[in-house]
Amino acid sequence: MAELDGKVALVTGAGQGVGLGIATALAERGARVALVGRTTAKVEAAAAGIPGAAAFTCDVKDPAAITATVAGVVAAFGRLDILVNNAQEVPLGTLLDVDDAAFEAGFDSGPLAAFRFMRACHPHLRRGRDADSTVIVNLTSSATRRWDMAGYGCYAAVKQAVVSLTRAAAAEWGVDGIRALAIAPHAESPGLKWWIEHNPAEAEAFFATIPLRRLGDCRTDIGNAVAALCGPDFGYLTGAVVPLDGGQANFS
Predict the structure, then answer these.
(1) The pTM is what?
(2) Which entry of 77, 152, 155, 173 is annotated as an active-site residue?
(3) For this structure, is 155 an active site residue?
(4) What is the pLDDT of residues 72-103, one digit of tens each?
């Protein structure tokens, strides 16, 4: 499959987990990929396993670093067609447990970082409505639709903000030929594995609510879906939240 031949993708939080799975799947469909992460050794090791990929070190909470990273990616590859905002620090806990610093870090690394990357990338993604569309993919979560929000309020607030930004980008930048989508994945990421290990009883109940009774694989389930969404077959889809959660949440 080579439907992304000639495309360049920038993926944040790409040193491991979902970000790496997405980057790998995009590359397998022909895209050249810029892997962005805050830990140099980790993101360089990840890029070494993907032909033609390049690693960029960036703390997504640093506005100057975001601007420099986007400029560096465009300088290295000559263009930009796909932006995936995956990086996120997760403020988990009850409203009395999550302190201001953790909540602010969730916003800084999530919706604020996505906002900054989107604006920095916009001049490079803008092609006009008669050209092949470029794509922004932002990661949200089915935590925004939990039946029991106890312990997830701060995280859900952060991720719901991402959805609002995605919808705004779809509405405002469609005339520029830019599509904007959000995905809500359940995947075997290091973070979720840690949560399962430390919350076995809740994890067992959690799995029982997933109709497919499993987590998604970072590359084959989540990455391949994102790669498909970025391709021409979904050229008329924008502004949507695509649940990649095995059918758990009700996004209708």
Answers:
(1) 0.95
(2) 155
(3) yes
(4) 999 999 999 999 999 999 999 999 999 999 99
